[in-house]
Design goal:
- Helix content is 27%, strand content 18%.
- With 262 residues, it is α+β, with helices and mostly antiparallel strands.
- Strands 6-7-8-9 form a four-stranded antiparallel β-barrel.
- Helix 1 (45-54) crosses helix 2.
- The longest helix is centred in the C-terminal third of the chain and has 13 residues, at 176-188.
């Protein structure tokens, strides 16, 4: 098989180098790129949540990142890849976006891909929005509205999925139109504007406190800064339910005393 310009099959296990689907794109040598899906081990969203948490990922982001992997990126297949470098469960671009020192072989392991995804996200919703452009708008997670947790105008627009569930061709590979649009967004998106210059002196940030907030219809304790009726926890906004509390233990006690409180 002749691959277009790019990482090609470098570092790809021989068992994953099936014929795949050729995606027409004149910007690449040979007029396109190869996409391969439905290979490796399949993970359900519940299994992806566990994988994300075990790799050091935030429990609050676990259902969101599981949905991104299964619904938008790899369809839950650990061996999904394409000849431009997208690799594994979360389709980490290798070598461009992969964390320094991480090989493509490591990205094909579920644990390695999860560690790379956690590092790229910075364990923040803003990092997820930046590195998986358009996915937050398109995933389905009960009770989750990305626009409620990010600054106005910062949410990337939704686009077609890569290898998400229900979009794969019979061979398990990306449909041509969806894949072409996906790679076009990743390769041609304009660079973000430079950040504004920092002021000479910044006001002191309010101290973080313990609160009880709404999360997916339930109550959880979290440490953050109040902004009106919302709590800002490292850039993620949650609806305030109770607090402040002097400690995590006090916040958890409130949750335990109010089971099922909406």
């Amino acid at each position: 098989m002749t691959y277009p310009a790019g990482p090609g099959s470098q570092g790809v296990p021989a068992a994953y180098q099936n014929q795949g689907t050729f995606v027409a794109d004149p910007r690449y040598q040979g007029g396109g790129w190869w996409s391969h899906g439905g290979v490796g081990t399949h993970f359900t969203e519940a299994q992806l949540e566990t994988l994300w948490i075990n790799a050091g990922g935030s429990r609050q982001l676990a259902p969101i990142m599981a949905a991104i992997a299964e619904q938008r990126e790899s369809g839950g297949w650990s061996g999904a890849w394409n000849s431009t470098g997208a690799t594994g469960l979360w389709q980490i671009e290798w070598p461009g976006s992969a964390p320094s020192g991480m090989s493509r072989e490591e990205l094909f392991t579920p644990e390695g891909n999860a560690r790379a995804a956690v590092r790229l996200s910075g364990n923040s919703l803003a990092g997820v929005n930046s590195n998986w452009a358009g996915d937050l708008q398109a995933i389905s997670v009960p009770g989750f509205d990305p626009a409620a947790h990010l600054p106005p105008g910062s949410l990337s627009p939704a686009g077609p999925a890569s290898m998400g569930a229900g979009t794969q061709a019979a061979s398990g590979c990306v449909p041509l139109s969806a894949a072409a649009a996906k790679i076009a967004r990743r390769r041609t998106a304009p660079a973000p504007p430079p950040p504004p210059a920092a002021p000479l002196a910044r006001p002191r940030r309010p101290a973080a406190q313990w609160w009880v907030v709404d999360y997916l219809g339930g109550s959880i304790p979290t440490r953050g800064v109040r902004q009106g009726n919302m709590i800002n926890q490292e850039g993620i906004l949650f609806r305030l339910k109770a607090g402040p509390f002097a400690s995590l233990a006090e916040a958890q006690a409130w949750v335990d005393a109010h089971p099922g409180k909406k």
